[in-house]
Amino acid sequence: MYESFVTKARALGTEVYRVDDPAAAKQLIEKLIREAGAKKVALVPAPLLDALDMEKVVSAARAELLTAGSVRKRADEADLGITTFDLAIAETGTLVQDATALDRRLVSMLPPVHLAVMPLDGLTATFRQAIANLAAGEIPGYLAFVSGPSRTADIERVLTIGVHGPGRLIVVFIDEQEGRGSR
Amino acid sequence: MSAKDLRQKSREALANENLGCALGRFSDSYVVSREEIYRGMDFQALREEVAGIKSGAALHMEELAARFQAAAEKRGAKVFRAATAQVAREYIARLAKERGVELIVKSKSMASEEMHLNDYLQEQGLNVAETDLGEWIIQLSCQKPSHMVMPAIHLSKEEVAAIFSKEMGREVEPDIPDMVKLARQELRKKFLAAGMGISGGNIAVAETGTVVMVTNEGNGRLTTSLPPLHVIIVGLEKLVPRFTDVAPILEVLPRSATAQHITSYVTMITGPVPAEGLDGREYPKKELHIVLLDNGRTRMAADPVFREALQCVRCAACLNVCPVYQLVGGLFGDVYTGGIGAVLTAFFTNPEKAGEIQNLCLRCERCRDFCSGNIDLPGLIGELRRRTVQKEGMSAGQRLIFEKVLADRRLFHSLLRLAAKAQKPFARGGRIRHLPLFFAGLTEGRVLPAIADRPFRDLADSLPGPQSAGAAADERAEAASGVRTAGMSVGGRVAAAPGGRAAGVPAAGGRAGAATGGQASGAAADERAGVASVSALRPAAPRQKVGFFSGCLIDFVYPQTGVAVQKVLTALGMEMVTPAAQSCCGYPAQQVGLPDVAAKLARQNIAAFEAAGVDKIVTACPTCAEALKSLYPQLLAGEKEWSARAQAMADKVQDFSSFVHEHRDELPLNPQEQTFTYHDSCHLKRRLGVTAQPRELLAAAGGTIVEMSPADICCGFGGSYSIKFPEISQAVLGRKLQAVTGTGASVVAVDCPGCRLQIAGGLAHRGSPVEVRHTAEILAERLKK
Ligand code: SF4
Predict the structure, then answer these.
(1) What CATH number corresponds to the domain at position A82?
(2) Ligand 1, CB cutoff 6 Å, lining residues
(3) Rounded to whole angstroms, how far apart are CA atoms B268 and B203?
(4) Residue B292: CB partners within 8 Å, gap ≥ 6?
(5) Which of residues 123-142 of A touch B (CB under 8 A)?
(6) Are A44 and A84 within 8 A, CB to CB?
(7) Is-same-fold flag (B38-129+194-297; B668-781)?
(8) If you write DSSP's letter for every residue of B273-306 in order, what string do you get?
(9) What per-residue string of b and e applies to A125-141 under the rule 16 or more CB within 10 Å gives b?
């Protein structure tokens, strides 16, 4: 299932990584921030990220973590945004996020690069399965399905990346989470 | 728009080379990548599932709307039911003014286009920015979107650069990535400054009050996230009952729209969510208004025929594969374009205009195979045409032709005979540039074959044999003595010497009895008898008695096809008869919206073939086959006595190639190597589902087939279409001819006399030596002597 996700997501232009545990995740994310040349980073707190001690990771990557001020400004200023996703769909290479909270919507959309962090056990086989799972509970206020970077083909049908949303989408899967063990 | 304006506009559109090229190229690659993306999926099953959901929803539209409203309001949204575009516009404008909104950002919404929302808001002094790149370009250049999915597909990058330069007040280079970046920067400013966002919706779920939206650029995400006030406009046809219904619809929509598994963003909004005001104030819940737009949808749902159009998911596949749309773009339609556009225009935006634009449909029926909602779009357009004619009538001249001439077989046939004589001074080498009478107009820009000196109905009485008179005499003798020899390729032929009927006719039973008079009076006698046919010595023990439905084109323009059919069937040991009382199949009358005339012709033809007492009915014209097989039972369904007779006839009908293919093992062929390319006639492929049979027969006759690409695009004939819109017809033909000559084959095989007329005419006009021949003729030539 993971393999098929990777194939589909890469075909859409998503960059896919997988690490065993939080320690490896920290190293990788630091490297990714640095390689992206990001100077300002915005993120949305979540248990998965808290466990990674992101403040340290960002500063180790020699970037500034934006925390103060309005979320609109922060998200618009950042070179790179980090949020967590809940589900991934292997069939289509899609990431799914409950984006009801405003910061999650803006941090995942406004900066030119987005880094999604995702527990591996959120992987689902098919789109239908994902919809059926969601239908079983209360539908969140704002559900975001993201498949690859923002794209357009509106001028002469030439595919161009990064119109309104991020031009780069990176996802880091973490196999094993602190206190939960691997699955 | 009058018919004249439409024709003038179509000329202009055709003159716009960029449009035709961009759309044509897109269409070719679209078909390929769409097929790729559906690989391994059962498209038919999937679209039936979608059609089931949407047709059920259309039946319960009001109930779903009420459930949706309740669910969405429970989650905190405000739902406004707008009966018309006008009240919807007013509602939105009032809201913006009351909240002191200075700038509105919009993501793509066809419903907002339908209500001409931007113009209205601007009239009200409100500032609106489209944020979908294509829509923004269209807005800046004050144009109308030409395509539901790709609004600016008709513009080149140079044109876009010029539009941007004007907007920016500085020179913008026609570099696509740079221009996209520029759009990002400019529109980002607007997103951050906007007080209101307006978006559309692709699906509205009644049980949860959720609106689903698909976009690729992400502008939809920003429109629905940044401004603290959000308005969703969604048509009632987007309602579905359950949340799980979203899955099949989203499985077809992006695949059919842009050949993607899924769009970059799929957003599902259920009730208001937190927002931040322009002043930095935080709102735990923003203001969310959902405008549920009726504007003709309830009326459409109440219409037993057009209700089907509510199954549409707006994938635009029907535009992408439409040969007319490829050439004239947005002209084929109004706010909504293409085939579905004609239908939606009739109910949502401009009923009068719909009456005109439906005329642009060629009736090639290609769209039906691709429709994600499993809609019989050609059928709906036919109905639109019928209603238009019923309401507005057609020109007196045209009506006269169909009602007085076509419906009266004798008159029609004598006029054609007269035409054959009258054309003499104009015909050159068997081809003609100007036809007299009502075929005038057909000759524009194309060389037409002359009407045959002797129609097939006359030849069928006196088929000359390919052999010498001696051989023919031998055949007569053999036939008369009831012996059928293996080498006798045309056993059923009387092979009369010119000028007189064979003396030894026939041991062939009473049916051939008419053929006893002299040639001159023979036809008249046949007409009296009701069964002309039978030139025919039957094969000694005919396996089947096959009635031949010739159709007007084979009868009067390509009698050689009829002769070939007779040779092939006889070689198979069949007795072929051609009832003289048969007339036009009626399809053209149906096509122009005169079902009464078509029904009259149907009854005549049914009676003619009943009188002939045949086991099977074969036709070498797919349009006639479709008329006999599907149209007649449909036309006469309400008539007690006739409906069973129509069905009985329909059950006997088969197209030539399929019939022969079933008996191919017994066909005495003498294969000769030759390279052909094969043109799939629209009706044969799409209505009758026949593609392999003629190819296999040609291969059995020694032929090698070089496929053209694409093989199945329409030749542009479309019956009377070529009279109404000769320019479009010609341009569609142009694409076809390119495909033909691209194969290098010297002969195009076809199974349809209409396609032959069109393609051969085009080739001759361009001075091409490539020949067009009916499959029957190619086979007949290769029969063992
Ligand atoms: S009519 Fe069918 S093919 Fe055309 S847009 Fe609607 S769903 Fe798509």
Answers:
(1) 3.40.50.10420
(2) B 256, 312-318, 340, 370-373, 375, 377
(3) 9
(4) B65, B68, B69, B79, B80, B81, B82, B204, B234, B235, B236
(5) 127-128, 131-132, 134-135, 139-142
(6) yes
(7) yes
(8) --EE-TTS-EESS-EEEEEEE-TTHHHHHHSTTG
(9) eebbebbeebbeeebbb
- Residue in this structure with the two tokens 């088969």, named with its chain if needed: B654
Quote the mean pLDDT of chain B.
Answer: 81
Return the SS3 of B488: coil
The tokens for B632 are: 């007649």
Report the relative pairing of strands B78-82 and B287-293 from DSSP bridges. parallel
Best mutation target, A164, A168, A169, A171, to test chain B (most B CBs within 10 A): A164
How many domains are there within chain A?
1
Span B237-292, pLDDT tens digits: 999 999 999 999 999 999 999 899 999 999 999 999 999 988 888 889 999 999 99
Searching chain B, which residue's CA lies closest to the CA of residue A106? B225
Task: Dihedral sign for Cα B44, B45, B46, B47, please.
Answer: positive
Chain B: give the shortest CA distance to residue A12, in Å. 8
Asked if the structure places residue A167 within a domain, the reply is: yes
Question: Quick check: B217 and A152 CB within 8 A?
Answer: yes
Is residue B510 predicted with pLDDT exceeding 50? no
Q: Has residue A180 been placed in a domain? A: no
CB nearest to B152's CB, from A102, A144, A154: A154
DSSP for B227-271, please give it: SSEEEEEEEGGGEES-GGGHHHHHHHHHHHHHS-SS-SEEEEEES
Q: Residue A56 is encoded by which pair of tokens?
A: 């340290």
Q: Which residue, B119, B32, B200, B24, is CA-closest to B714?
A: B24
b (16+ CB within 10 A) / e for B256-282? bbbbbbbbbbbbbbbbbbbbbeeeeee
By C-alpha distance, which of B781, B743, B777, B782 is closest to B763?
B743
Question: Per-residue confidence at B516, pLDDT binned at 50, 70, 90?
Answer: very low
Contact criterion met (CB < 8 Å) for A155 and B160: yes
**How many whole angstroms separate alpha carbon B553 and alpha carbon B717?**
13
C-alpha B674, offset from chain centre: 32
Range of the domain at A117: 2-174
CA distance B550 to B558: 10
Q: How far is CA A77 from the centre of its chain?
A: 18
Q: What angle (nearest 5°) sits at the alpha carbon of residue B453, between those of residues B448 and B456?
A: 95
pLDDT class of B236 with cuts at 50, 70, 90: very high
Q: Is B515 helix (H, G, I), strand (E, B) or coil?
A: coil
CATH class of the structural domain B668-781: alpha beta
Residue boundaries of the structural domains of chain B:
1-36+316-392, 38-129+194-297, 456-662, 668-781
Across the interface, do A144 and B262 touch by the CB < 8 Å criterion? no
Tell whether pTM > 0.90.
no
d(CA A6, CA A123): 11
**Residues forming a β-bridge with B56:** none
| Burial group, residue A33, by CB count within 10 angstroms (0-12, 13-18, 19+) | buried
pLDDT in tens, A93-114: 999 999 999 999 999 999 999 9
Angstrom distances, CA of residue B417 to CA of B88, B410, B452, B455:
61, 10, 9, 8
- Looking at the structure, give the CATH architecture of the domain made up of residues B38-129+194-297: 3-Layer(aba) Sandwich (3.40)
ipTM (interface pTM): 0.95
In angstroms, what is the span from residue B506 Cα to ligand 1's centroid?
Answer: 58
User: Is A181 among the domain residues?
Assistant: no
Residues 6+ positions from B496 with CB-CB distance below 8 Å: B461, B462, B463, B464, B502, B519, B535
- H helix or E strand, kind and range, residue B662: helix B656-662
- Separation between Cα atoms, residue A50 and residue B155, nearest integer Å: 49
Cα B313 to ligand 1 centre (Å):
6
B621–chain A nearest CA distance, Å? 40
